[in-house]
Design a protein that fits this description.
The chain has about 300 residues and is α/β, with parallel strands linked by helices. The chain has ten helices and 15 strands. Helix 4 packs antiparallel against helix 5. The longest helix has 22 residues.
Length: about 300
């Protein structure tokens, strides 16, 4: 298998100096990197969250993922390449892209597939709002959209500084976040997107010492953490997941002993705002959390 260039966009963001976080670069000597001044770069976008970014950066595309979410009008007539987790490699290859853009969470599965068809790929770290804007900055540098990217980063810097000022003197509640799938659930740490939003809002994740995005934990351990608030959200199929959570909390007796349950501090988060990837609706997500954490 040939070594193909791909770039992982870092999630590190510092307002004083926003530094490009491109790492792990591999390049096949037979390929060339498009000039940063080239206005005709051919992009394939495999995620609706990434489509929002490229739209705001005023970038066109030759391929776009199938999705149940609304996509920017700019891409409505662009050729579909399949769903984010399983793009049609034959179609992707036929579009002759300069880059395929995908979420970092899928890199282990997708990067070898892209390499097998000899296309370059950029994986964006959208696990947090900071990561979103670091990815924007990096894409601006790579794809000659520095001005558009800097404008977006400046808007975020202004917003988040004002938001944090609003909560700086408030008592931070301890929060347990459950991420559900049909039939099961895991604990979301502050390294997940939902967890990063809770941290931005000033909440303290009861599993703040963990390094993974999601962990398995038994209910006795969760109870011992004594969360002030329990938040529940869905990875997919939100209606089914929330039905599962409702049944779990009704039938599993251990939940009745949680202080948060006794005090009616269990909340279901909206699927559109608390998914797996950072999106530009984070102000609405933070507003939702504001009412929950500080009511």
């Amino acid at each position: 298998m040939k070594r193909i260039k791909y770039i992982v966009l870092s999630s590190v963001l510092a307002f004083s100096a926003l530094i490009s976080g491109c790492v792990n670069q591999y390049e096949d000597s037979s390929t060339t990197i498009p000039s940063e001044n080239n206005e005709d770069i051919r992009l394939v976008i495999t995620s609706p969250a990434i489509a929002e970014i490229t739209d705001k950066l005023e970038l066109e595309a030759v391929g776009i993922c199938d999705t149940s979410f609304e996509i920017p009008k700019r891409y409505e007539n662009v050729e579909k390449i399949g769903y984010a987790m399983s793009p049609d490699l034959e179609i992707v290859k036929s579009l002759n892209p300069d880059y395929v853009l995908s979420p970092l969470t899928l890199i282990e599965d997708l990067q070898p597939k892209y390499a097998s068809i000899q296309v370059k790929s950029l994986f964006l770290n959208l696990k947090s709002v900071d990561g979103l804007y670091s990815a924007i900055s990096d894409l601006g540098k790579i794809l000659n959209r520095d001005e558009q990217a800097q404008r977006l980063v400046d808007e975020y810097s202004t917003f988040i500084n004002e938001y944090k000022e609003k909560n700086k003197d408030k008592v931070a509640p301890k929060v347990l976040i459950l991420m559900g799938l049909p039939g099961s659930y895991v604990v979301a740490t502050e390294h997940s997107y939902a967890g990063s939003l809770v941290k931005l809002a000033g909440g303290i994740n009861v599993y703040e010492d963990e390094t993974a995005e999601f962990i398995n934990a038994n209910t006795e351990d969760m109870k011992a953490k004594d969360p002030d608030i329990i938040l529940r959200t869905a990875h997919a199929l939100p209606d089914r997941v929330m039905e599962m959570f409702a049944e779990e909390f009704e039938t599993n007796d251990v939940w009745k002993h949680f202080r948060a349950v006794k005090e009616n501090k269990v909340y279901d988060l909206s699927y559109e705002r608390f998914g797996m990837s950072a999106k530009f609706n984070y102000p609405q997500a933070l507003e939702e959390l504001q009412e929950i954490l500080y009511s």
